[in-house]
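To: structure desk
From: M.T.
Subject: fold request, one chain
Message: Could you run this one when you get a chance? Sequence is below, nothing fancy, just the single chain.
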Amino acid sequence: MYKDKIKSKSQLLKEIKRLKKAKKKIGFTNGCFDIIHPGHVKYLEDAKNKCDILIVAINTDSSTKKIKGDQRPINNQKARQIVIASLEAVDFVVLFDELTPLKLICQAKPDVLIKGADWKKEDIVGAKEVSLYGGKVSRITFLKGYSTSAIIKRIAAGL
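Reply: Done. Structure tokens follow.
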């Protein structure tokens, strides 16, 4: 059930410790995940293929506003958590309130840090830190034609 996948930071860190003892490969990705579309679903399924356990860190409403502007998010953080946690590919969902998930990445120490291929490896938050302890950084190609910003523009234009 999706409710079991939504964790606080402290709950998540305990889960990670347990899973690492069980030799599970931990993957980590993050984003706002405001209006879910097929591009998000494909991205998260591809991310899951790179690990045993996929953690998705979601920006809180306040950090999303700082990144995307005052009109965002469209869906509040609880709604976004529920939708992402409902996806089969996702094992755990956690919120973070900072502009970047660097602190959480450093605490979680995932085996694989996953971001979209639109990011250069050297620009991925946490890439340097993950690489220093022997983790991997993986970039995933997006499904073309899908973007939350483009969806919002179409709705605003009345299409």
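Reply (cont.): The radius of gyration is 15 Å. Let me know if you need anything else for the meeting.
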